[in-house]
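Appendix B. One record, verbatim.
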Amino acid sequence: NYVTNQCLRKPCNSAWQKVYCEGNDQKFVNITSLDKKSFHQLLVLFAPIFEAEGRWKPGGPGRPRKLVESHAVLGMLLAFYTDSAGLKSICLQFGIPPSTGCRTLKTAEICLLTTLRRCHLSAIKWPTAAEQVEWALLVERKNTLIKGRWGFIDGKNYKVQKPSSAELQNAMYNG
């Protein structure tokens, strides 16, 4: 069951490398959940941190990294976060064995966390009370059945009872 180097393409000839060099926004979004421009903006911040944290030094402990390009490491981490297939198939896309993939993901997560902590644009900031009231009024103006709500979270499905009226059902239906 173990995937070894002999059955993998080299990272420089991997499926990821082809997407990185020739891919369009749709392919980037499918793999990383970011378009090409957003991926590169994040990569500019991520690369120096990875270069400082993730480089093997000749004569140092361990062995050289198989996946050394910053774009491939960031791409692999984002693919791991967005893909439900699991580590083994992601490693096939990037041309590295799963044991290497685990170590690479560990380093990449630390580097991404450092990157996001340094980037003010990645911070979660709640609106002020006045902004919440203003936004709730805008939401209510667009849909009169939704009162006192200024934001919505998607991605979770909870079992709920059917609303009592058809109008209320239509207001809460999200497709």
